[in-house]
Amino acid sequence: MAKAHKISGVKPLCSYRENARIILPQKVEEVYTWEPFIRDVARHEELHNMRISIKRLRYTMELFRIVYAFEKECPKDGTPTDEERFDEFLAVIVDLQEILGDIHDGDVVLQVLTDYAHQSASDAVAPPSLPATGKDGIAKLIDQTRETRKTDYEKFLEKWEQLSAADFKRKLLSFLVT
User: Fold this and answer.
1) What end-to-end distance do the CA atoms of the chain give, in Å?
2) HSE-up of 34 (CA within 13 Å, CB side)?
3) Environment class of 98 (CB within 10 Å of its CB; exposed 0-12, middle 13-18, buried 19+)
4) Is the whole-model pTM more than 0.90?
5) What is the set of domains in the chain, with CATH numbers?
6) pLDDT for the residue 125
7) Helix, strand, coil: what percent of the chain each, to 5?
8) Of 44, 49, 45, 52, nearest in space to 149 by CA
9) Could you count the other beta carbons within 10 Å of the beta carbon of residue 57?
């Protein structure tokens, strides 16, 4: 697992809001350091590291939620409050974390099943816990897990592309520092 990037510029004697403006953009940038790897389906470790970075961003955002819960003035034109906008951004982060979590779960299950299938194949006789017909079941389960992982990966890429097209990163950073 990748280590969290070091946060610089925190000012302990400044307000909670000022430190949120310093810390959160750095957490966003940490997430985007993994973007160059996401279009390679075989970059399992990097996708997992992106998930961990997104998780750190999520929990840091939740920690600073109170900062965005207060409006300077109530919008009269029906535009969302800062709190509502914050919750919308956070919901996207949570969704990305969950999709990447599903991908990682698939990677782990595939590794375990593949290792087991190879171990069973190298045995002259099926282990007592797995009858010969069970080997076919393992192969089928591997195929199903691969397909589910592929679907989750495609879902993630589609979501990421939509967010990129909507300029999500810029909008999030702009919101976090104002």
Assistant:
1) 32
2) 24
3) middle
4) no
5) 16-177 (1.40.20.10)
6) 52
7) 70, 0, 30
8) 44
9) 24
